[in-house]
């Protein structure tokens, strides 16, 4: 069971007994405070010895970076092809009539490129991996033709190289490289779906992106590009929503009726929280490069906060588990982290262009430092990734597991007292691997499988069971002495070049 009451031998008053009972009931409820007295969960059969040492899983999801954009020159990783220390690949630039080689980018603010399902297909270009500049230019053209006074257009000139083929190094992102050197870097982590942010975040919590005709899970069908969108987005971008979201000629809120992982976590009494940073959320429907920002909070469903629209979350009365990031820092400080946590940033700290890279690195460092300073550090595994490639160049052709993905490669890091030191994991991975790890650690190996999870839906496959998918347990050594914290400064010295004041809006 997820909660229990320790019976004291002391004689206590009826009022005190009632108070104690109420505290326990609050701890057991989905919206109650996590007390740290939850059960460790059930290991999957055949789980490696020592996996039970992990009692807290934290998934940090940032925005819009490819693996090569951040780790393309990391020693030993499957990065940008090099010859004599220089990039050996050249990406066609139709504007100039010749190709451009990947280059060292010191800018703190990038433009990136569009990242719809169509853009993913054209960036990959039949496995040639050379459509990135073409798609960035097409996205810029659409942006500036529609909104010529957009401040970003003033930065788009023929004199500026296309930053989608730029790459950053330890000089710009020293903390991320420090985590890689001291813990685990995954160089074959792929976005679960070949599309933009909303489907990526849906996959992160449910291993599927779908559109449903009604509240019946069996009415859902795969939606790579156009799952139903939060109502404020749908109103501003009516052409981007699926027809089912406009029933009777009127837009309505999404209804994610298929099964997500919180259904199983609740069923097996595993505590969870989805922490949402308050602030602007800048990503755009259909993966557009820029659009008007909208505000996000734990109570505001959004493309980075899809759980409020899941039927299971509402039916299980778990909406209270979607909380602000401040609640995460408090839980870490008090040693009351839930067994499973997700953290999503605000736009300012997301690294999603045009957000500053330095802001995102500082936010992530603070989140990780909080976990490392926590009494829960000794039993924690942190998984850090980015939700999609954001239009940036990557050289590795994504494996095809079904019609939905995988998408392009993104950075992945594993940080834990039991993570291997300086290890590069070459396994084929996707966000589905996070769910697989959670299921093996806390749910006895139960998958989001409509044949066995007690809540059938018509998903095309069980993503956590796909033969191509690696296993995150290989990134751990449970026999080693637990690693001490690696506390890093949120604002380390870097070579990042700040944007000009005239282009500071974003």
Can you tell me about this structure?
With 506 residues, this protein is α/β, with parallel strands linked by helices. The chain is 23% helix and 15% strand. A hairpin with a 7-residue loop joins strand 9 (210-212) and strand 10 (220-222). Helix 3 (117-124) runs antiparallel to helix 4 (132-146) and helix 10 packs parallel to helix 11 (357-373). It is globular and about 60 Å long.
Topology of this structure?
Elements: H1 14-28, E1 56-62, H2 67-71, E2 82-83, E3 86-87, E4 91-93, E5 98-100, E6 103-104, H3 117-124, H4 132-146, E7 166-167, H5 174-182, E8 184-190, H6 197-206, E9 210-212, E10 220-222, H7 231-236, E11 246-247, E12 250-251, H8 261-267, E13 272-276, E14 279-281, E15 294-296, H9 311-315, E16 322-324, H10 325-334, E17 340-344, H11 357-373, E18 380-386, E19 409-415, E20 423-425, E21 429-430, H12 432-442
Parallel strand pairs: 1-17, 1-18, 6-7, 8-20, 8-21, 13-16, 13-17
Antiparallel strand pairs: 2-3, 4-5, 8-19, 9-10, 11-12, 14-15, 18-19
């Amino acid at each position: 069971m997820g909660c229990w009451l320790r019976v004291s031998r002391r004689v206590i008053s009826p009022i005190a007994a009632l108070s104690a009972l109420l505290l326990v009931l609050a701890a057991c409820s989905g919206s109650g405070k996590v007390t740290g007295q939850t059960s460790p969960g059930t290991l999957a059969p055949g789980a490696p010895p020592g996996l039970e040492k992990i009692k807290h899983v934290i998934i940090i999801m940032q925005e819009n970076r490819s693996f090569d954009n951040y780790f393309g020159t990391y020693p030993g990783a499957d990065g940008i092809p090099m010859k004599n220390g220089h990039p050996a690949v050249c990406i066609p630039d139709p504007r100039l009539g010749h190709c451009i080689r990947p280059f060292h980018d010191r800018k703190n603010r990038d433009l990136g490129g569009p990242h719809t399902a169509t853009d993913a297909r054209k960036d990959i270009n039949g496995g040639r991996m050379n459509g990135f500049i073409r798609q960035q230019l097409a996205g810029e053209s659409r942006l500036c033709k529609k909104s010529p006074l957009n401040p970003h257009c003033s930065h788009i000139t023929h004199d500026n190289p296309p930053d989608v083929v730029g790459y950053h190094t330890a000089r710009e992102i020293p903390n991320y490289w420090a985590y890689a050197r001291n813990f685990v870097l995954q160089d074959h982590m792929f976005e679960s779906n070949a599309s933009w942010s909303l489907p990526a975040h849906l996959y992160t919590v449910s291993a599927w992106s779908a559109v449903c005709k009604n509240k019946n899970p069996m009415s859902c069908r795969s939606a790579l590009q156009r799952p139903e969108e939060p109502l404020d987005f749908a109103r501003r971008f009516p052409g981007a929503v699926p027809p089912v979201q406009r029933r009777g000629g009127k837009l309505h809120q999404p209804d994610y009726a298929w099964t997500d992982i919180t259904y199983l976590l609740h069923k097996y009494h595993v505590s969870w929280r989805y922490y949402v940073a308050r602030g602007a959320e800048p990503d755009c429907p259909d993966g557009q490069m820029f659009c008007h920002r909208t505000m996000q909070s734990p109570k505001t469903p959004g493309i980075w906060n899809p759980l409020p629209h899941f039927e299971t979350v509402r039916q299980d009365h778990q909406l209270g588990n979607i909380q602000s990031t401040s609640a995460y820092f408090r839980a870490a400080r008090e040693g009351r982290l839930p067994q499973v946590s997700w953290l999503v940033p605000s736009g300012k700290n997301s690294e999603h262009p045009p957000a500053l890279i330095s802001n995102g690195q500082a936010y992530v460092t603070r989140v990780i430092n909080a976990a490392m300073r926590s009494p829960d550090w000794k039993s924690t595994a942190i998984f850090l990734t980015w939700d999609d490639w954001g239009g940036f160049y990557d050289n590795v052709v994504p494996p095809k597991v079904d019609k939905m993905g995988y998408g392009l490669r993104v950075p992945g890091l594993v940080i834990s007292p039991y993570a291997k030191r300086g290890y590069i994991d070459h396994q084929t991975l996707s966000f589905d691997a996070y769910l697989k790890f959670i299921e093996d650690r806390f749910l006895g190996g139960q998958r989001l499988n409509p044949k066995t999870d007690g809540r059938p839906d018509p998903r095309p496959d069980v993503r956590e069971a796909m033969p191509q998918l690696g296993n995150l347990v290989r990134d751990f050594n449970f026999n080693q002495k637990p690693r001490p914290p690696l506390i890093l400064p949120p604002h380390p010295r870097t070579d990042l070049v700040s944007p000009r004041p005239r282009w500071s809006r974003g």
